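In this section we walk through a basic example: taking a raw amino acid sequence and producing a predicted 3D structure, encoded as discrete structure tokens. The instruction is simple. Fold the sequence below.
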Amino acid sequence: MNELAQLTQTLRDYIGLAHKKDISAVVETLSKRMPNVKNDVTLGDDCAVISDNEGFLLFAAEGFLESFLTTQPWFAGYCGVMVNVSDIYAMGGRPIAVVDTIWSNGQANANPVLDGLLSASNVYQVPIVGGHSNMRNDHLQLSVAILGRANKLLSSFAAKAGQKLLVAVDLRGRFHEPYAWWDASTNSPAQRLREDLELLPQLAESELCEAAKDISMAGTIGTILMLLECSRLGGVIDVSAIPRPENVSLERWLTCFPSYGFVLSVDEKNANDVIARFTQRDIACAVVGKTDDSKRLRLTDNQNEELFWDLNNSPLMGCGKFRGESYA
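The resulting token sequence is shown next.
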């Protein structure tokens, strides 16, 4: 087995991708029983979207594993705001406010989580305006929800065949050892972080891009697969073209969660302009592949090519079924 084949199998078996596959059961249940409420973006995108007279309201939420909360309570709280903020910007929006739900065994156990929430709230200038608490639970639990607004949308459902696939990621960070979290946020200037995120709505409003997704725990390849599934597309990715830090193995990098990382599908005529906007802010950005109408994602290293996923036969999140299309 060549190196690319081994990497492909490792990424296909990655637990972060398995968590995304679990979404399919939720989508299936909701598609059958949910009231007919207007939602401008179907299930599977980074945020729910409801249009109003002045644009779009964006809603998102995140929950956190107990093991993360108990071992990294401050960072878990920080991430509660950070990852929600990223979801809003990934769809071309700007955050308005967050609410949190925290349960703990006593106030002392809740305090580090609350400190992390407040730190990120200050960094990203997004107020915590309410929520729910229970200090008499037997263990830590946390979920955080966010409200935002967009003038023009970036969406996982808006990619088209023949576009360039770009990865933009902030390499000015470090691993939050021993975990697969690339932290380019907690030690960075707050104003710079906010201005870096502002690139996403600016791309939407300037009509240089319509399709994007933030890199999640599914990793870079898994996130690209999620975007392609939503847009009924396939594509090919050159794994050697993906920006990554020096002295970090490709396998570790492709299975990590970066605090600032986005995949974008862009018309070829706009690709250089999009790359330049990120580059001007010292954010690594490069063309890593191209979309097509095959519904098959392939990986290449310029010597070999491997099939990573065939959406014709195996949906990931099940978004096609929810939108009335069959994978058969």
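Looking at the output, two observations stand out. The longest helix spans residues 73-90. The first strand starts at residue 48 and ends at 52. In the next section we compare this with other chains.
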